[in-house]
Design goal:
about 220 residues; alpha/beta; Glutaredoxin; 2 domains; 6-stranded mixed β-sheet; 4 helices; 6 strands; rod-shaped
Length: about 220
């Protein structure tokens, strides 16, 4: 009886151990499945999120591209502009001039601000190089003039000067393009700069804006 009882106990312990091993194996399988599932969910989320971020960036870039490509509301376009170098006065189609025959020497236009009126024919040569010419009359407020001054000084391929004969307080001119505004805070002014500083309208893109007339 003693021997039989011992055998029964050993068999019971063995069965218990096997049962525990099976339970442990089952737990490990469940944990692996949970880990794999969570990993898959995380990878899917990361990939999806990455794709969304890339797509969102592309969408923003495309929207910006389209916005820059669109005409600036109110801008004027001038075509069939001469490009001859002349040393005689030129009668321009618009005021200020936004293209046409011009002086062989350009006005310096690397963010140059002039306190007096400049040679119009030289300023037109700067436009040919891809510059934007910012002009203003005495109707522009001192606050606007200061804001324009700061904007031009921080923007290569621009120049600024007073121009008494224009019809609006502020004008911005590029080769074949012009916009009149009443205030430096008009958002169209920055759009014009973004679009036409070294823009597609430039007859001589990349040409220098230094080494010309300084006054």
């Amino acid at each position: 009886m003693g021997s039989a009882g011992a055998k029964a106990q050993r068999a019971a312990r063995k069965a218990k151990i096997e049962e525990m091993r099976r339970a442990e194996a089952a737990r490990e399988r469940r944990n692996r499945i949970i880990t794999w599932t969570l990993s898959g969910v995380i990878v899917t989320a990361v990939v999806s999120g990455g794709w969304y971020a890339v797509q969102e960036t592309r969408d923003r870039a495309e929207a910006k591209k389209q916005a820059v490509a669109a005409p600036v509301k109110g801008e004027k376009t001038f075509k069939d502009l001469g490009r001859n170098h002349v040393t005689t006065p030129v009668s321009y189609k618009m005021s200020p001039a936004a293209g046409g025959d011009h002086d062989p020497a350009w006005m310096n236009c690397n963010g140059d601000v002039y306190g007096e009126e400049v040679s119009e024919t030289s300023a037109v040569h700067s436009l040919e190089h891809g510059a934007v010419w910012v002009t203003y009359t005495d109707k522009a407020t001192s606050k606007d003039v200061k804001a324009l001054n700061e904007k031009v000084k921080s923007t290569p391929y621009t120049l600024m000067s007073p121009y008494a004969k224009q019809s609006s307080p502020i004008s911005v001119s590029a080769w074949g393009k012009q916009l009149n505004v009443d205030s430096s805070s008009d958002p169209r002014l920055q759009r014009f700069l973004d679009k036409y500083v070294q823009g597609k309208q430039t007859p001589e893109p990349g040409a220098t804006c230094s080494g010309g007339k300084a006054a």
